[in-house]
Every structure is written in C-alpha cells, then in structure tokens.
Amino acid sequence: MKLEMRGIYKSFGANDVLKNIDFAVSGGEICALLGENGAGKSTLMNILGGVLPADSGGISLDGQPVSFRTPAESLNAGIGFIHQELNLVNDLAIFENMFIGRELKTKSGLLDSKTMCGRCREVFRRMDVDLDPRTMVRDLDASYKQIVEIARALLMDASIIIMDEPTTSLTDPEIDRVFDMMRTLQAQGVAMVFISHKLKEVMAVCTRYTVLRDGAMVASGQVEDTNVDELARHMVGHEVRTESLRQERELGPEVLRAENLSQDRYFSDVSFSVRAGEVLGFTGLLGDGRSELFQAVFGSGGKYHGQLYLEGQPVAVHGTPQAVALGIGYVPRDRKENGIIKDLDILENGSIVTWPKQSRLGFLDWNQVREDFRRQADGLKIKMGGEKEAIGSLSGGNQQKVVLAKWLNAGPKVLIFDNPTQGVDVGAKEDIYDTILALAKEGVAVVVLSSEAQEIIRLCDRALVLYHGRVQGELSGEEITDQEIMRLATGGSVQNEGVQQNG
Predict the structure, then answer these.
(1) Nearest residue to 234 (alpha-carbon basis) of 244, 247, 221
(2) Angle made by CA atoms 211, 214, 220, in degrees to the nearest 5
(3) Number of domains observed in the structure of the chain
(4) Of the candidates 236, 261, 276, which is a domain's last residue?
(5) Positive or negative, the Cα torsion across 246, 434, 394, 405?
(6) DSSP string, 283-309
(7) Which residues does residue 195 pair with via DSSP β-bridges, in sequence order?
(8) What distance in Å separates the CA atoms of residue 99 and residue 93, rounded to the nearest whole number?
C-alpha cells in the first residue's frame, strides 16, 4: 500500500500548525517522522488517524482519494496508530486486549476464547514472536506490551502502522526486540511511520526520513544518505552541541548527605553527598533502584533505613510536603503520571508548588502567581498559546518545562531530576541542560538520574553507578565515559591497572 498526503494545512486559531505538508510512505518502508516538540508531527498523524480534520489538502491510498472522519474509518482503511501511551488493560489477558470491543462469541453467546487465541497466534507467527495469548498483560515487560499493540493493529488488517515514540520507556534489549519485529514486518511489505527523538535509533532501523520544523517540511530523504548531526541540524535549524557541558565552578558546602540508605528490594547501603553548585549523576541499568532511592529521599517512596542530613542537620523525610518545606524538589521521570495534573491549566501546573507561599488569608495572590510563572516561562522558552489553556495542549517537551517551572519558583536547595529529557526533542533537551547548569551556578545542589550515558557524561561533575541497588563505583570528570559506566552498571569495578573484577 502507498500512502500520500498532499498540501496538508491545519491551523488552531491564528496558529498555523501545518503549512501545506507533503508526506508519503510505501509498503516495506520504515519512514522516520522527525521534528522538535510542537513541530506538527502529532497533528499530521492525527489527521491521518482520523482524530483531526485537515483544513485543506488531501490523502490518497494507492492513488485513490480518501478522507477519515473518525479513527475507526482510518483503521478500516488499514492504518493502525500506536500511541506513546499504550492503550492496554493490565488486568486482561493478551487475547482479551487484542479483541477488546470486537470480541468473538460462540453460537450460545459466550466468549469464543479458543478462536480468539487462535487468531492471536496466527498474528504472532507472522511477527515471529513467541507469546501465549492467555498471558496477563501485567506480566509482560514494556517491549512485549509494545509488540501486543502492534499485533492488535495487524489483527485489524493494518498495512500502515504509525508508531509514536515506541521506545521511550524501553531498555536496550527491549528496543532490539521491537526493532527485530519491525524488520520482520518490513520484509512482509508493511509500511511503518516511526516518530522518535532518538536519532541513533532512526539511523538503526529506518529507511527514509521526513523532518518538520515549525509546521513546515524542511528535509526528507534516504537515511543511508544522512547522519545524526545533519538530522539534528534539520530539526532545530542550527548546529546542536555535543560537547561536554561540565563547567569549572567553585562548589559550596555540603547540602545533602545520605548514609547507608536501604529499602527492601530496591536499594541497599547507599551513601552519597552533594554540594552546593554541584551536578551529581546517578546511572545504571533498568532495576538499579535509583528512582526508588530518590523517591524515598523526597518522601514519596515509603519507609527507608539509614540517615539523611540536610546542611549538616539530621532529617527524617516522611512525606513530600515536608521535603518541599526542607527545600528538596523532585522532577519525576513520568510527567504524565506524576509531573502534571491533567485537570489543571498551564498556569496552575506551573505554580502549584508555591501556592502555600503565595496565599494570603486563604486566598491566592494570582497577580504574583502569574508574574512568577511568566518569568520562568520566558527563561525556559515555553512554547504555548495562553497560560490558561489545558496542560495537555502542550507538547511533551513544553510540559516538562512547565513541571520544571514550578520547582524553579520554589527555590529549592536540592533539585532532583529523574530522566529529565525523556521523550524530549533535541532543542528542548539543550534548553533543559542550560537550566540545570544555571541552577548549579546559582548554588543549587543538583542530582541527575538518567539512563542515558551521554547525558551523565555531558552534564555531571561526578557520577555514581548503581548495580542491583548498590553503589558499584564513583566516577568524576574525565573518568565518566561510556565504557566505565557500562563496566560498573554490569557489575564490574572501576578499571584499575587493566584489571577487571566481576561483582
């Protein structure tokens, strides 16, 4: 099947979101759709998926004009849309998820689980995937959940599959598994649109690319004819920095210290300290316990053993309000679940942490709230319409900046960033890095938790690498390299005189 979108134009009020976009993909291609958050990628795919109407332009499949008023019409035409937030029910089996809303029944009116499982197995064989359709979805890792979503689209005869940020929450082995499955489908003539900010993944799995910037198509071509630096330049319109961002700073006194922190199943005997103006990194592999460790420090992760010291004084953090009052802030990794409140608008999300300070006799000083938020919004370059619009109207990167704004207004002594640029485009990522470094320069003690080695290498003065919930080693300055991080993250010790030890 060949898809063509010609002259697609879409505006929201005075904002031109798509400016006469041409986009095409054919069977057997994996086409990367690239661009910064807010570039128009999701809007273009939502038009293709029947979620939004185009103001002008046309769509054709195999040369025949089509139009989709609903997602069902798009799916019936063979277009499957797999969104970044997976639409699976954990408490149902795989086959029940794949047939949800379209269940097969026997003549007596009972669910025909045997036939549904058989149909699922047929799809899994086509995908070269070994899955039992009766397995509960909650028992699957993230990559197999992604694969089940793809299988559901194939079950509904999709010949074009749109994949929106499919690897955001996956580990490297899980990503490899999904990519192997994508290549299998590619060989069978399925067309795929791969939306991602991870340009190395684009180079690894895609055959073609199209880049949008500010609602216009700025580049397209064969992946084999380009490279990561060129793609990044197309996305942001200028060269993207790749050098180390570590800066010489005069560090202040110790702000936060932990001694022998432990929590059953997650982390054990962890000690560390971070000084004013320092950027301290924590990294490792999936399940290393770093998020659970700092959720405990922030008072949201349950009871722990060990002792915390803030500015030299022993503290026991029993809840997040206490942590905030002590000057500890936390930017969570899952902004949709833990960072934003979907029922509040942009201004409310960007100021909620400081409401207790900005209230008088039980009433909020909204003039002060707006003034403080606008100052942070300008500094963070948040792209938005109006501050009273829904937080969901913003791109992922701009939502992350709103989450950051609320903590900057609070003036924390310690600010913890948990995977701060997850699902964020290259331009917004650099803005967030600049903010982290500016905080350190102002004397804030910064802790960065990240699965991306390059993020730790570029940002951090020191890095602790965790392995199965324990500190496996500490690296600083030029010692922080991909090789040393991986050695420690897989149980080895810091390389010393060419000798490696296994832990």
Answers:
(1) 221
(2) 15
(3) 3
(4) 236
(5) positive
(6) E-STTSSHHHHHHHHTT-S---EEEEE
(7) 33, 164
(8) 10
| Number of residues in the chain | 503
pLDDT digits (tens, 9 = 90+) for 411-422: 789 999 988 887
Q: What is the pLDDT of residues 280-289, one digit of tens each?
A: 999 987 678 8
Between β-strands 313-315 and 363-364, what pairing exists: parallel, antiparallel or unpaired?
A: unpaired
Confirm whether pTM is higher than 0.90: no
Instruction: Write the CA distances from 81 to 75, 102, 162, 390, integer angstroms.
Output: 8, 17, 5, 24
CA angle 417, 419, 420 (to 5 degrees): 60
pLDDT at 502 (0 to 100): 39
Pair 11, 153 in one domain: yes
329 and 414 Cβ atoms separated by less than 8 Å = yes
Confidence of residue 200 (pLDDT cuts 50, 70, 90): confident
List the domain range (segments joined by +) for residue 33. 2-236
Tell me what the pLDDT averaged over the chain comes to: 85
Residues 284 and 375 placed together within one structural domain of the fold: no
Token pair for residue 312? 């030299």
Statement: residue 317 has pLDDT above 60: yes
Cα–Cα distance for residue pair 240/4, rounded to 1 Å: 31
Whether the per-residue pLDDT at 188 is higher than 70: the answer is: yes
